[in-house]
Amino acid sequence: MEILAQLLINGLIAGGTYALAAIGYSMVYGALKFINFAHGSVAMVGAYFVFGLAIGRLHMPLVPAVVLSMLLTALMGVIIERVAYRPLRGAPKLAPLTTAIAVSFVLDALVMIVAGADIKTFSLPTQRGYEIGSIFITPVQIIIIVVSVIAMACVYVLMNRTKLGKAIRAVADDANLAEVTGMDSDLVISAVFAVGSALAALAGALIGLDTNLQPTMGFNITVKAFAAVVLGGLGSVPGAIVGGFLIGVAENLGVWFIPPVWKDTIAYGILILMLFLKPSGIFGKKEEAAATVL
Amino acid sequence: MLETGLIVHLLVVITIYGILALSLNLIIGMTGLFTMGHAAFFGIGAYASAILTKLGVPWFFSMLAGVVLAALVAFLIGIPTLRLVGDYLAVVTMGLGEIMRAIFKNWISVTRGPMGLPGIPHASIFGINFNTAEKFLILSTICLAIVFIIAELIIHSPFGRVLKGIREDETASQALGKNTYRFKMISFVVGCGMAGMAGSLYAHYINYIDPTSFVMWLTFFIILIIMLGGLGNNVGALAATTVFVLLREGLRFVKLPEGLNPAALQQLIFGLLLIAVTIFLPRGLIPERKVVYPRKSGGSDDAQN
């Protein structure tokens, strides 16, 4: 029973980071109806920014390093959209998918060249963990959970209580209609990429703190966040959050039943199963399942 | 400086990659299905064929088994995903790639995991043993020719026209009464089966396989080839295959500054190239020929006005 509780906690920690990555995914899908394959690599770059600022020559404290990384990554997300996706708006769907995959390869390669292909760890000073009953949790893990919940609350406020959030939802609902009412949908889409990329950077940094950094980690984040988004319903922000936690918990509980080397395949299994059972996801709107052609 | 041995080797690589490019062109170029799992089907064909021949099954039947297994997996993946819009297929096939890699790596009792499978027998058929690169080139060229003929027959058939119709506008094809799911499924299964064939050729040419040969980078490389060759154009796909295999091999001889990771540099160059091609040359260097329907003689068109 203790092991189960411990696995559950580990699952919630991982799930929080997946949820953060999944939110950006879902927002971009909502606004552009396209899957941003590069999202995981953007998160990876964000994690390396933090690493470079905090561990590299600058030796910044962790908190400002994370904030600066989120700003840099947001800028990068906006530039990527301008350069690689915007010229292809209205082109066949294949085109932006192709450039997104190419962007992810380019980002991975750049990080490999600049930072090296080896695994990096933040190697924070070892801190005593807390034991609550029989559950063991480190201060870093507590920070991860708290930060991801705060970030999600911020997204909720942004989406539901601000003008920008209203505009983002309007563009996601019907871009043409939003244009007609005088919104600059290009600007809104840039904002979506800025917010999504900043969240991705945060997710990447937290994953880096929880485990380690590797130039190829982006791919894993992409698939897990996508599995979370499909589980929760494409385009739904609450769905992305719930999906992220479910994937994290399922992965970690799964280790109880199957050897740990298969852990990473659990998300794919859930993804495929969900497409069989309910492609529109838990919170997906029925029309969004107009994703279904037949 | 160029020895014949190297030339023959490059030609064999070009024929194997040519099969991959033609099969992916059928799926992506002609049907518009965005799959990211081609390396997985290549790997399924390679592993199935290698394992069976090591158990004593003749090469031809092992190769067939690899093709059938790749096609079967494609069928199972297609059931949930081909009913949905294209993005789902892309991510699920990407996930399949990772699942297959995990299987190749972790199912040690069958695949020997990261140690790989050494000593894969040479291909042989009707008592002819293709045990040298020159002989193998004949075999792989024949296979490439067969795949090319099949791909061309499909393109110019009524079936191929429906595939292109689905690519251009799936809803319109449905409105014309076509069961687009079935057409997409056949295209996907046939294309993945061909990738399985290429995998078998690869395994019995190199005589050694391990999980690192079947990573997503390979899929990406083939996508770049068919994008540049012109989606839907088989001749263009083969031309681009030749150019890229030579380019990739040529890059190995370029002297790099100390400490620069050559694999990463290659990935950077090809990634940037793919972005540029998609934006500035969306129809590739050799665009697919537009179908020109002969006008009816006698000026009947004018009569309709």
Describe this structure as you would to a colleague.
- The complex is a heterodimer of chains A (about 290) and B (about 300).
- Chain A contains 11 helices and 2 strands, in the order ααααββααααααα.
- With about 290 residues, chain A is an all-alpha fold.
- In chain A, strands 1-2 form a two-stranded antiparallel ribbon.
- Chain A is globular and about 60 Å long.
- Residues about 285-294 of chain A have low confidence and may be disordered.
- Chain B is mainly α and about 300 residues long.
- Chain B has one domain (about 15-250).
- Chain B is built from 13 helices and 2 strands.
- In chain B, a hairpin with a 2-residue loop joins strand 1 and strand 2.
- In chain B, helix 1 (about 5-30) crosses helix 10, helix 1 packs across helix 11 (about 235-250) and helix 6 packs antiparallel against helix 9.
- The chains are: A mainly alpha (about 290), B mainly alpha (about 300).
- Chains A and B meet through helix 4, helix 9 and helix 11 of A and helix 3, helix 4, helix 8, helix 10 and helix 12 of B.
Measured as a percent range, the helix fraction of chain A is over 70%
Count of helical stretches of chain A? 11
Number of strands of chain B: 2
User: How confident is the prediction overall: mean pLDDT of chain B?
Assistant: 84
Count of domains of chain B:
1
Taking the alpha carbons of the first and last residues of chain B, their distance comes to: 68 Å
Structural class of chain A: mainly alpha
- Anisotropy-based shape of chain B: globular
Overall number of strands of chain A = 2
Radius of gyration of chain A: 19 Å
Helix content of chain B: over 70%
Mean pLDDT of chain A: 86
Structural class of chain B: mainly alpha
User: Numbering strands along the chain, what is their spatial order in the largest sheet of chain A?
Assistant: 1-2
Quaternary assembly: heterodimer
What ranges of chain A have pLDDT less than 50 throughout 5 or more consecutive residues? 287-294
Low-confidence stretches of chain B: 299-305
Q: What's the order of the H and E elements of chain B?
A: HHHHHEEHHHHHHHH
Overall geometry of chain A: globular
The succession of helices and strands of chain A, N to C, reads HHHHEEHHHHHHH
